[in-house]
Amino acid sequence: MHQAQDVKQAAVLGSGTMGHGIAQVLALAGVSVRLFDVSTGALEHAQGRIRANVQKGIDRGKVDAAEGAQALERVTTTDDLSKATRGVQVVVEAIPERIELKREVFGSLGEATGPDVLLATNTSSLPITEIAAAARHPERVVGMHFFNPVHIMKLVEVVRADQSSPEAVSSALDLARRLGKEPIDVKDSPGFASSRLGLVIGLEAIRMLESGVASAEDIDKAMTLGYGFPMGPLRLTDLVGLDVRLSIAEYLAREVGSHFEPPALLRQKVERGELGRKSGRGFYEWND
Predict the structure, then answer these.
(1) What is the pTM of this model?
(2) What is the rounded CA–CA span in Å between residue 172 and residue 183?
Protein backbone atom coordinates (compact mmCIF):
# COMPACT_ATOMS: atom_id res chain seq x y z
CA MET A 1 0.00 0.00 0.00
CA HIS A 2 1.37 3.41 -0.99
CA GLN A 3 2.33 5.75 1.84
CA ALA A 4 0.26 8.95 1.94
CA GLN A 5 3.30 11.19 1.45
CA ASP A 6 4.17 9.26 -1.73
CA VAL A 7 0.78 9.78 -3.40
CA LYS A 8 1.31 11.86 -6.53
CA GLN A 9 -1.71 10.92 -8.65
CA ALA A 10 -5.30 10.30 -7.59
CA ALA A 11 -8.60 9.65 -9.31
CA VAL A 12 -11.86 11.09 -7.99
CA LEU A 13 -14.95 9.41 -9.40
CA GLY A 14 -17.97 11.70 -9.47
CA SER A 15 -17.78 15.48 -9.88
CA GLY A 16 -20.76 16.55 -7.78
CA THR A 17 -20.75 18.49 -4.53
CA MET A 18 -18.46 16.06 -2.73
CA GLY A 19 -16.38 14.91 -5.68
CA HIS A 20 -15.21 18.32 -6.83
CA GLY A 21 -14.48 19.29 -3.21
CA ILE A 22 -12.33 16.21 -2.68
CA ALA A 23 -10.50 16.91 -5.94
CA GLN A 24 -9.84 20.46 -4.77
CA VAL A 25 -8.28 19.51 -1.43
CA LEU A 26 -6.15 16.81 -3.05
CA ALA A 27 -4.86 19.31 -5.60
CA LEU A 28 -4.09 21.90 -2.93
CA ALA A 29 -2.10 19.21 -1.10
CA GLY A 30 0.11 18.72 -4.16
CA VAL A 31 -1.64 15.70 -5.70
CA SER A 32 -2.47 15.60 -9.41
CA VAL A 33 -6.13 14.66 -9.79
CA ARG A 34 -8.13 13.12 -12.60
CA LEU A 35 -11.76 14.01 -11.97
CA PHE A 36 -14.14 11.54 -13.64
CA ASP A 37 -17.83 11.86 -14.45
CA VAL A 38 -20.09 10.40 -17.11
CA SER A 39 -21.43 13.91 -17.78
CA THR A 40 -19.13 16.42 -19.47
CA GLY A 41 -21.52 19.17 -18.41
CA ALA A 42 -21.10 18.14 -14.78
CA LEU A 43 -17.32 18.19 -15.21
CA GLU A 44 -17.42 21.72 -16.61
CA HIS A 45 -19.59 22.84 -13.70
CA ALA A 46 -17.21 21.16 -11.24
CA GLN A 47 -14.20 22.95 -12.71
CA GLY A 48 -16.03 26.25 -12.33
CA ARG A 49 -16.84 25.52 -8.69
CA ILE A 50 -13.22 24.57 -7.95
CA ARG A 51 -11.94 27.77 -9.59
CA ALA A 52 -14.43 29.86 -7.62
CA ASN A 53 -13.57 28.18 -4.30
CA VAL A 54 -9.83 28.57 -4.83
CA GLN A 55 -10.24 32.22 -5.83
CA LYS A 56 -12.34 32.86 -2.72
CA GLY A 57 -9.54 31.30 -0.64
CA ILE A 58 -7.01 33.58 -2.32
CA ASP A 59 -9.20 36.65 -1.78
CA ARG A 60 -9.52 35.83 1.92
CA GLY A 61 -5.81 35.22 2.34
CA LYS A 62 -6.23 31.54 3.14
CA VAL A 63 -4.62 30.30 -0.09
CA ASP A 64 -1.41 31.60 -1.63
CA ALA A 65 -2.11 32.87 -5.16
CA ALA A 66 0.73 30.89 -6.74
CA GLU A 67 -0.22 27.71 -4.88
CA GLY A 68 -3.84 28.19 -5.91
CA ALA A 69 -2.88 28.53 -9.57
CA GLN A 70 -0.73 25.40 -9.36
CA ALA A 71 -3.57 23.47 -7.71
CA LEU A 72 -5.95 24.37 -10.54
CA GLU A 73 -3.43 23.06 -13.07
CA ARG A 74 -3.29 19.74 -11.19
CA VAL A 75 -6.99 18.99 -11.82
CA THR A 76 -7.88 17.42 -15.15
CA THR A 77 -11.23 15.97 -16.16
CA THR A 78 -12.31 12.93 -18.15
CA ASP A 79 -15.42 10.88 -18.91
CA ASP A 80 -13.28 7.76 -19.46
CA LEU A 81 -13.06 5.65 -16.28
CA SER A 82 -10.06 3.60 -17.38
CA LYS A 83 -8.16 6.78 -18.28
CA ALA A 84 -9.07 8.34 -14.93
CA THR A 85 -7.71 5.42 -12.89
CA ARG A 86 -4.65 4.47 -14.93
CA GLY A 87 -1.43 4.76 -12.92
CA VAL A 88 -2.95 6.36 -9.82
CA GLN A 89 -2.06 5.56 -6.21
CA VAL A 90 -5.49 6.44 -4.76
CA VAL A 91 -9.06 6.24 -6.04
CA VAL A 92 -11.80 8.10 -4.17
CA GLU A 93 -15.32 7.28 -5.31
CA ALA A 94 -17.96 9.98 -4.77
CA ILE A 95 -20.81 8.94 -7.07
CA PRO A 96 -24.51 9.07 -6.03
CA GLU A 97 -25.57 7.22 -2.86
CA ARG A 98 -26.86 4.06 -4.55
CA ILE A 99 -25.16 0.90 -3.43
CA GLU A 100 -25.68 -0.94 -6.72
CA LEU A 101 -23.83 1.85 -8.57
CA LYS A 102 -20.98 1.84 -6.07
CA ARG A 103 -20.63 -1.94 -6.21
CA GLU A 104 -20.55 -1.79 -10.00
CA VAL A 105 -17.75 0.78 -9.92
CA PHE A 106 -15.67 -1.10 -7.36
CA GLY A 107 -16.17 -4.32 -9.29
CA SER A 108 -14.54 -2.68 -12.30
CA LEU A 109 -11.57 -1.14 -10.47
CA GLY A 110 -9.58 -4.35 -10.03
CA GLU A 111 -8.73 -4.45 -13.70
CA ALA A 112 -7.60 -0.82 -13.81
CA THR A 113 -5.62 -0.39 -10.61
CA GLY A 114 -2.44 -1.97 -9.25
CA PRO A 115 -2.15 -4.08 -6.08
CA ASP A 116 -0.97 -1.17 -3.91
CA VAL A 117 -3.73 1.32 -4.78
CA LEU A 118 -5.99 2.54 -1.97
CA LEU A 119 -9.67 2.37 -2.92
CA ALA A 120 -11.96 4.65 -0.91
CA THR A 121 -15.69 5.32 -1.01
CA ASN A 122 -17.07 8.63 0.21
CA THR A 123 -20.47 7.23 1.23
CA SER A 124 -22.01 8.81 4.32
CA SER A 125 -23.94 5.75 5.45
CA LEU A 126 -23.92 2.80 3.04
CA PRO A 127 -22.21 -0.40 4.27
CA ILE A 128 -18.54 -0.38 3.30
CA THR A 129 -18.30 -4.14 3.78
CA GLU A 130 -20.95 -4.71 1.12
CA ILE A 131 -19.28 -2.28 -1.28
CA ALA A 132 -15.86 -3.87 -0.69
CA ALA A 133 -17.26 -7.33 -1.38
CA ALA A 134 -17.70 -6.35 -5.04
CA ALA A 135 -14.01 -5.47 -5.44
CA ARG A 136 -11.35 -7.85 -6.68
CA HIS A 137 -9.14 -6.76 -3.78
CA PRO A 138 -11.57 -5.96 -0.94
CA GLU A 139 -8.73 -5.61 1.56
CA ARG A 140 -7.76 -2.33 -0.18
CA VAL A 141 -11.23 -0.78 0.25
CA VAL A 142 -12.07 1.66 3.06
CA GLY A 143 -14.61 4.39 3.62
CA MET A 144 -13.40 8.00 3.57
CA HIS A 145 -16.42 10.09 4.52
CA PHE A 146 -15.64 13.74 3.85
CA PHE A 147 -17.97 16.55 4.93
CA ASN A 148 -19.51 19.40 2.99
CA PRO A 149 -18.02 21.84 2.15
CA VAL A 150 -14.95 19.65 1.81
CA HIS A 151 -12.41 22.48 1.63
CA ILE A 152 -13.63 23.89 4.95
CA MET A 153 -14.80 20.96 7.10
CA LYS A 154 -11.98 19.29 9.03
CA LEU A 155 -13.50 15.89 9.81
CA VAL A 156 -12.97 12.73 7.76
CA GLU A 157 -14.43 9.43 8.94
CA VAL A 158 -12.17 6.56 7.92
CA VAL A 159 -14.43 3.52 8.01
CA ARG A 160 -13.05 0.00 8.32
CA ALA A 161 -14.89 -2.64 6.33
CA ASP A 162 -14.70 -6.22 7.60
CA GLN A 163 -12.19 -6.89 4.83
CA SER A 164 -10.07 -3.70 5.17
CA SER A 165 -6.40 -4.39 5.83
CA PRO A 166 -4.60 -2.48 8.60
CA GLU A 167 -2.35 -1.03 5.89
CA ALA A 168 -5.34 0.37 3.96
CA VAL A 169 -6.81 1.96 7.10
CA SER A 170 -3.45 3.45 8.08
CA SER A 171 -2.93 4.81 4.57
CA ALA A 172 -6.38 6.44 4.56
CA LEU A 173 -5.82 8.03 7.98
CA ASP A 174 -2.46 9.42 6.87
CA LEU A 175 -3.90 10.71 3.59
CA ALA A 176 -6.63 12.57 5.46
CA ARG A 177 -3.96 14.20 7.64
CA ARG A 178 -1.97 15.17 4.55
CA LEU A 179 -5.08 16.97 3.31
CA GLY A 180 -5.20 18.98 6.53
CA LYS A 181 -8.11 16.99 7.95
CA GLU A 182 -8.72 15.39 11.35
CA PRO A 183 -9.61 11.72 10.75
CA ILE A 184 -11.45 9.39 13.10
CA ASP A 185 -11.25 5.59 12.89
CA VAL A 186 -14.73 4.05 12.76
CA LYS A 187 -15.97 0.47 12.44
CA ASP A 188 -18.39 -0.20 9.60
CA SER A 189 -21.88 0.06 11.08
CA PRO A 190 -25.12 1.72 9.92
CA GLY A 191 -24.64 5.48 9.76
CA PHE A 192 -21.06 5.22 11.07
CA ALA A 193 -20.57 7.79 13.86
CA SER A 194 -21.40 11.17 12.37
CA SER A 195 -24.44 10.35 10.25
CA ARG A 196 -26.27 8.66 13.10
CA LEU A 197 -25.62 11.51 15.52
CA GLY A 198 -26.17 14.33 13.02
CA LEU A 199 -29.29 12.79 11.53
CA VAL A 200 -31.02 12.41 14.90
CA ILE A 201 -30.68 16.16 15.47
CA GLY A 202 -31.60 17.04 11.88
CA LEU A 203 -34.75 14.91 11.85
CA GLU A 204 -35.90 16.27 15.21
CA ALA A 205 -35.39 19.83 13.93
CA ILE A 206 -37.62 18.99 10.93
CA ARG A 207 -40.28 17.54 13.24
CA MET A 208 -40.16 20.72 15.34
CA LEU A 209 -40.62 22.87 12.23
CA GLU A 210 -43.41 20.57 11.04
CA SER A 211 -45.33 20.97 14.31
CA GLY A 212 -44.81 24.74 14.48
CA VAL A 213 -42.50 24.86 17.50
CA ALA A 214 -40.42 27.64 15.90
CA SER A 215 -39.25 28.94 12.53
CA ALA A 216 -36.35 27.32 10.69
CA GLU A 217 -34.18 30.33 11.49
CA ASP A 218 -34.95 30.18 15.21
CA ILE A 219 -34.48 26.41 15.46
CA ASP A 220 -31.09 26.80 13.84
CA LYS A 221 -30.25 29.75 16.08
CA ALA A 222 -31.04 27.63 19.13
CA MET A 223 -28.26 25.23 18.14
CA THR A 224 -25.68 27.76 16.92
CA LEU A 225 -26.03 30.17 19.84
CA GLY A 226 -27.21 27.75 22.52
CA TYR A 227 -24.92 24.80 21.78
CA GLY A 228 -22.11 26.31 19.75
CA PHE A 229 -22.92 24.47 16.52
CA PRO A 230 -21.14 26.16 13.57
CA MET A 231 -24.32 25.74 11.52
CA GLY A 232 -27.93 24.94 12.37
CA PRO A 233 -29.35 21.49 11.49
CA LEU A 234 -31.87 22.80 8.96
CA ARG A 235 -29.37 24.94 7.08
CA LEU A 236 -26.98 22.00 7.12
CA THR A 237 -29.70 19.76 5.70
CA ASP A 238 -30.10 22.25 2.84
CA LEU A 239 -26.36 22.03 2.13
CA VAL A 240 -26.26 18.23 2.32
CA GLY A 241 -29.40 17.88 0.20
CA LEU A 242 -32.84 16.93 1.45
CA ASP A 243 -32.90 13.94 -0.91
CA VAL A 244 -29.61 12.70 0.53
CA ARG A 245 -30.88 13.12 4.09
CA LEU A 246 -34.11 11.29 3.19
CA SER A 247 -32.20 8.36 1.69
CA ILE A 248 -29.97 8.04 4.75
CA ALA A 249 -32.95 8.29 7.12
CA GLU A 250 -34.83 5.55 5.28
CA TYR A 251 -31.77 3.30 5.41
CA LEU A 252 -31.15 3.89 9.13
CA ALA A 253 -34.84 3.41 9.93
CA ARG A 254 -34.57 -0.06 8.42
CA GLU A 255 -31.22 -0.94 9.95
CA VAL A 256 -31.26 0.76 13.36
CA GLY A 257 -34.77 1.69 14.43
CA SER A 258 -37.98 3.66 13.91
CA HIS A 259 -36.57 6.81 15.57
CA PHE A 260 -34.90 7.46 12.20
CA GLU A 261 -38.25 7.35 10.33
CA PRO A 262 -38.31 10.46 8.06
CA PRO A 263 -40.84 13.18 8.93
CA ALA A 264 -43.66 13.77 6.45
CA LEU A 265 -42.37 17.29 5.80
CA LEU A 266 -39.04 15.95 4.57
CA ARG A 267 -40.76 13.56 2.16
CA GLN A 268 -43.07 16.30 0.90
CA LYS A 269 -40.23 18.69 0.17
CA VAL A 270 -38.27 16.05 -1.72
CA GLU A 271 -41.38 15.16 -3.76
CA ARG A 272 -41.75 18.86 -4.68
CA GLY A 273 -38.11 19.05 -5.74
CA GLU A 274 -37.15 21.30 -2.83
CA LEU A 275 -33.79 19.66 -2.27
CA GLY A 276 -31.90 22.50 -0.62
CA ARG A 277 -29.16 24.70 -1.98
CA LYS A 278 -28.68 22.67 -5.17
CA SER A 279 -32.31 23.27 -6.23
CA GLY A 280 -32.56 26.83 -4.91
CA ARG A 281 -35.03 26.00 -2.15
CA GLY A 282 -35.19 23.70 0.86
CA PHE A 283 -35.83 24.97 4.36
CA TYR A 284 -34.29 28.24 3.11
CA GLU A 285 -34.25 30.14 -0.17
CA TRP A 286 -30.90 30.00 -1.99
CA ASN A 287 -30.09 32.57 -4.65
CA ASP A 288 -26.47 31.63 -5.44
Answers:
(1) 0.84
(2) 9
